[in-house]
Design goal:
The protein is an alpha+beta fold. It has 3 helices and 11 strands. The longest helix has 16 residues.
Length: 194
């Protein structure tokens, strides 16, 4: 009887540590599993094919205020031998999960999904402001970036990061902002608002 009890207790410990079967369509489960690896700063998670491997992974957005840095990070988690492991983590980027738009996106020239983020009006005020957009390419470990600056005293300007080498991504960033700012001007140098 004692040996049976020890066996049951021993098996219980292993089950607690074991990763459950991941439902890559269940965002609640993905967030909960991601928090166990990355902590409570996880605000959203998506399951999908985010690189060229045939295995699904979890793309995570983390809102952080590490030391004096604050913003968002994008993390890719993969199941390896029954545990979730971090495969990629972006640097901290300007942005907030509040009032933002975040979803998976697929372009014809990519064999896998990317993650799209847009801060929308979170950094906009009555006198103008800025909007940040990112397309995360976990397969190439790249963050494609655009930054809209809208101020009353100048034409709306859009900076697109130099690493955007695919026309379809440039076009996507431009079209997103041209809807609201038809007189949008593309600029070569990013601007920091004070």
């Amino acid at each position: 009887m004692i040996s049976l009890s020890l066996f049951v207790i021993g098996c219980g410990d292993k089950d607690e540590d074991a990763l459950p079967k991941i439902d890559f369509e269940n965002k609640i489960q993905l967030i909960e599993l991601s928090k166990k690896v990355l902590g409570n700063e996880v605000v959203s998670a998506f399951g999908g094919f985010f690189d060229e491997s045939p295995r699904k992974k979890i793309a995570v957005i983390v809102e952080t205020d590490e030391n004096i840095d604050w913003g968002i990070k994008f993390v890719l988690l993969e199941e390896v031998e029954g545990k979730l492991e971090k495969k990629y983590e972006s640097r901290i980027l300007a942005g907030s999960h509040k009032e933002s738009f975040l979803d998976k996106i697929k372009f014809p020239s990519f064999d896998y999904e990317l993650l799209y983020y847009n801060s929308q009006n979170y950094f906009m005020g009555t006198g103008g402001g800025e909007s940040f957009s990112y397309i995360i390419d976990f397969g190439k470990k790249e963050v494609y970036y655009s930054h809209l600056i809208a101020e009353p005293r100048r034409a709306p300007s859009l900076f697109i990061s130099k690493n955007v080498d695919k026309k379809e991504i440039k076009t996507f960033f431009t079209q997103i902002f041209k809807k609201d700012y038809p007189s949008l001007k593309i600029i070569d140098q990013d601007i920091t608002l004070e």
